[in-house]
Amino acid sequence: MEDEVFRKAADLLSKAGYAIAFTGAGISAESGIPTFRGSGGLWSRYKPEELATPTAFARNPKLVWEWYRWRMEIIYNSSPNIAHKILSILERINIIKVVITQNVDGLHHKAGSRNVIELHGNIWRVKCIQCGFKTVLEKPPRRDELPLRCPRCGGLLRPDVVWFGEQLPPDVLTRAWEEASKADLVLVVGTTGIVEPAGSIPLFVIERGGYMINVNSEPNRYTGLASIEVRTTAVKFFREIARVLELLNQERDNIS
Ligand code: APR
Asked: Which of these CATH numbers, 3.90.180.10, 2.30.30.100, 3.10.20.90, 3.40.50.1220, describes 1-32+80-120+168-256?
């Protein structure tokens, strides 16, 4: 991947008035967390309609919980990678204003990102389908605890994530659209972009005349629409951006 594309991306990021990030499963791939689509993706091994829908949960809550427990184990034993960490630094130095993520793994928070919008919920948060009780689990439940029960009313607890066929929490979606309406740059990292309404959020930025940097190891929905297409992994991209921004700062220091 030639240096030029990283310099252009770093230049756009440093000149943006309100840059936001939009991330998907690909940013967590190098933390060892399986993506959903593409080679080895979860949906090539499991049927979402059997594991990630309200009907699936009503039909077999124990099966759905066993699948989420398996995902929680993977996430519990993973950690934020360089991409998550540098993205949190870009927020700290006020280059990135907010991270809008489709991921439920919580790794952006763990990496130090503060302003994070979790469109599809968080795998560590659970809620009671009867009384609405919510709590956050510190670690994966034991197999013999499944399906988890509400300590308040005894009803079934479920992962507080958005399943297929469910609406995103309205306040979360409104916040994401508000951020996109302020953005003049959206940094898209590791998403196919095909799941709605999330996938339309980055498009709103370019429809309003903003820029898009599309970071992905494969072509995706935004390929051909982005101002800068970076065909590489998330870790490689952020490593290069950090290097180039450092150089830019040094150059700026030398000039000023
Ligand atoms: N670096 C960058 N991109 C990567 C990497 C990597 N190391 N590994 C994979 N990718 C890219 C893939 O090319 C693909 O475009 O990440 C994307 C992963 O796509 P999906 O698995 O579809 O994940 P995502 O786009 O986040 O899915 C959106 O679908 O199943 C629902 O709710 C689930 O939030 C999820 C939503």
From this structure: 3.40.50.1220
